[in-house]
């Protein structure tokens, strides 16, 4: 009975983490998309800005391959993570490990939602006007080809490369220039935490269910 209770507790915790991250991620994305013009920037501090951009690729604006292929890969990855997370909950994995997996899964779902549905329910973003909802299916892109909304920008150091440096001398330099969203941050924190504290679990990853009662 106590083992079943532990499974239920960790399972519910994982679900709550995923739901909470998705809510924050999607509410913020929709607010930015419907209240800011494309590339508009709101300065919070010199090193923290809200900057509305959209991208076709992976986390932090990277682009790899076709949009549809990338979206299908994300769906496959989410399915893999979801099944593996389910196994880990049933096998009484450490709580922190379950939390990390839930954060990674939530981030992956958050960005795939943009790709799947934003192109169907929003008009195209523009530097001249804010985006708005349109009748389902009449938006700016087809299913799986929507753009991911990013907004967090942390230009911690803004400077200029010394003139004597080859190739980049005299050019502007920004330390940590990527613009990202809550989903990206959730994935990154989850992955870093796994690498720092759960390398043993990572080295024994298996999709084969274990008999926890033996």
Automatic annotation (TrEMBL):
Any GO BP annotation: proteolysis
UniProt keyword terms in alphabetical order: Aspartyl protease, Cell membrane, Hydrolase, Lipoprotein, Membrane, Protease, Transmembrane, Transmembrane helix
Residues annotated as catalytic: 150, 184
InterPro entries the record matches: Peptidase_A8 (IPR001872)
Subcellular localization(s) per the UniProt record: Cell membrane
GO MF annotation terms: aspartic-type endopeptidase activity
Segments traversing the membrane: 12-32, 68-85, 97-121, 173-198
Main location: membrane
Membrane association type: Multi-pass membrane protein
Pfam families: Peptidase_A8
Keyword Protease (UniProt): yes
Signal peptide (residue range): none
Annotated metabolic or biological route of this protein: Protein modification; lipoprotein biosynthesis (signal peptide cleavage)
Keyword hit for Transmembrane: yes
Reactions listed under catalytic activity: Release of signal peptides from bacterial membrane prolipoproteins. Hydrolyzes -Xaa-Yaa-Zaa-|-(S,diacylglyceryl)Cys-, in which Xaa is hydrophobic (preferably Leu), and Yaa (Ala or Ser) and Zaa (Gly or Ala) have small, neutral side chains
UniProt superkingdom: Bacteria
Record-listed E.C. numbers: 3.4.23.36
Enzyme class: hydrolase
A GO CC term attached to the entry: plasma membrane
Family: Belongs to the peptidase A8 family.
HAMAP family: LspA
Functional summary from the UniProt entry: This protein specifically catalyzes the removal of signal peptides from prolipoproteins.
Protein name in the entry: Lipoprotein signal peptidase
Organism: Marseilla massiliensis
Protein's gene: lspA
């Amino acid at each position: 009975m106590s083992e079943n209770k532990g499974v239920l507790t960790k399972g519910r915790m994982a679900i709550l983490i995923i739901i909470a991250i998705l809510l924050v991620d999607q509410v913020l994305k929709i607010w930015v998309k419907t209240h800011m013009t494309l590339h508009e920037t709101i300065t919070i501090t010199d090193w923290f800005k809200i900057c509305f951009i959209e991208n076709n690729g992976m986390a932090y604006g990277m682009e790899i391959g076709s949009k549809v292929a990338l979206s299908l890969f994300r769906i496959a990855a989410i399915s893999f993570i979801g099944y593996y997370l389910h196994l880990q909950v049933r096998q009484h994995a450490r709580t922190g490990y379950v939390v990390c997996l839930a954060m990674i899964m939530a981030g992956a779902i958050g960005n795939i939602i943009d790709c799947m549905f934003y192109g169907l329910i929003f008009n195209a973003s523009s530097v001249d006007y804010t985006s708005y909802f349109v009748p389902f299916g009449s938006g700016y892109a087809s299913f799986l080809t929507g753009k991911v909304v990013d907004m967090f920008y942390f230009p911690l150091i803004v400077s200029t490369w010394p003139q004597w440096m080859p190739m980049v001398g005299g050019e502007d330099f920004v330390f940590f220039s990527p613009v990202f969203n809550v989903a990206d941050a959730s994935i990154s924190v989850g992955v870093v935490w796994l690498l720092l504290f759960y390398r043993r679990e990572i080295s024994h990853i298996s999709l084969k269910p274990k008999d926890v009662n033996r």
